[in-house]
Amino acid sequence: MSPLLNTLLSSLAHQIISSELAITLTSSGKIKKRKGGMVKVLCKSCSTSVNSMVFTKHLERCSHNQN
Q1: Residue 14, Cβ density class (10 Å: 0-12 exposed, 13-18 middle, ≥19 buried)
Q2: Tens digit of pLDDT for each residue in 9-33?
Q3: Which of 32, 29, 37, 35 minimizes the C-alpha distance to 55?
Q4: Which pLDDT score is estimated for 27?
C-alpha cells in the first residue's frame, strides 16, 4: 500500500472513530477538548474532566457514589 493511501486511510479511520466516540460519550458527558490526540470528557454528574479511555470506569464509580 502506498504511503499516501495509508495516511488517507489512517486519517479517515481516526475521524470515524472520533465521531462514533463523540456520539457515544455525549449522552453521559460533554466532550471538552482534545489534547495530544486524547479526548477529554466532562462528566455531567460530577463535573469532572476525565480521559475518554477511562470514562466508562469513571461513570461506574460516579453512579456508585450517588447511590
Answers
A1: exposed
A2: 887 777 766 666 656 555 556 665 5
A3: 29
A4: 59
Q: Is 36 left (phi over 0), alpha (psi -120 to 50) or beta?
A: left
Distances (CA, A) of 56 to 7, 10, 33, 41: 30, 25, 17, 11
Query: What residues does each domain of the chain span?
Result: 3-66
And the C-alpha cell for 43? 462528566
* Beta strands across the sheet bearing 49-51: 29-35, 38-43, 49-51
Distance (Å, whole) CA 9 – CA 22:
20
